[in-house]
Specification:
The chain is mostly helical. Helix 2 crosses helix 3 and helix 3 packs antiparallel against helix 4. The chain has a domain of about 50 residues. The strands form two sheets. The chain has a two-stranded antiparallel ribbon with strand order 1-4. A two-stranded antiparallel sheet has the order 2-3. Strand 2 and strand 3 form a beta hairpin. It has five helices and four strands.
């Protein structure tokens, strides 16, 4: 039993599991915020403009049954398409907000990395002695960034020369196709 809890402790303490748990908690809170935005801000404005509450939009499939005393004996069966449309609007707003947030974070990260690379390249030009040794901090950081983000070091990558093969003419292609067909026929 002790081994089980030790393995469970290792499993839980892994970075991916903790990141996933944090993501789920934040995502749930984010969903609540967006749902409130849609239900409490956007939909009432749409309701006032359209003079119609979308949340209550429905179609009665089976009407309610009322007995002689006026009591409801069987509730109506409703097709609540308004709630469905509201859920679609919630989904679209959550998706749009996440897209914009990720776009902003990715852009900021890209600008940060480009700034680091630019600064490191400038430092390498001004102080090449800091990069002379293979184990120097400047060289290690330079190689780390170069391995992680090769697109920012494109000018340093030696391009291999690819031999240029002339393209065959249409006449040559047709001759080759006819020769292959004759071989298959025989």
């Amino acid at each position: 039993m002790k081994k089980f809890f030790k393995e469970f402790g290792k499993f839980i303490s892994k970075g991916n599991i903790i990141d996933l748990a944090i993501g789920i908690v934040i995502g749930t809170a984010f969903q609540a915020i967006v749902k409130s935005l849609v239900n409490d801000v956007i939909m009432p404005v749409i309701g006032v403009i359209a003079n119609f509450n979308l949340q209550d939009a429905n179609v009665i499939l089976v009407p309610e049954v009322i007995d002689g005393a006026g009591a409801i004996t069987q509730a109506a069966v409703l097709l609540r398409y308004g709630a469905f449309i509201q859920s679609i609007i919630d989904f679209l707003i959550i998706g749009l907000t996440l897209f914009v947030t990720i776009k902003i974070i990715t852009g900021a990260k890209t600008r940060f990395v480009k700034g680091q690379v630019k600064q490191l390249k400038r430092l390498k030009k001004q102080h090449p002695e800091m990069f002379a040794k293979e184990d120097s901090l400047g060289n290690l950081r330079y190689n780390e960034l170069k391995a992680k983000y090769p697109e920012y070091f494109a000018e340093e990558v030696v391009k291999e020369t690819v031999p240029v093969v002339p393209k065959p003419t249409t006449e040559e292609l047709l001759t080759e196709i006819i020769a292959v067909l004759k071989e298959k026929k025989n």
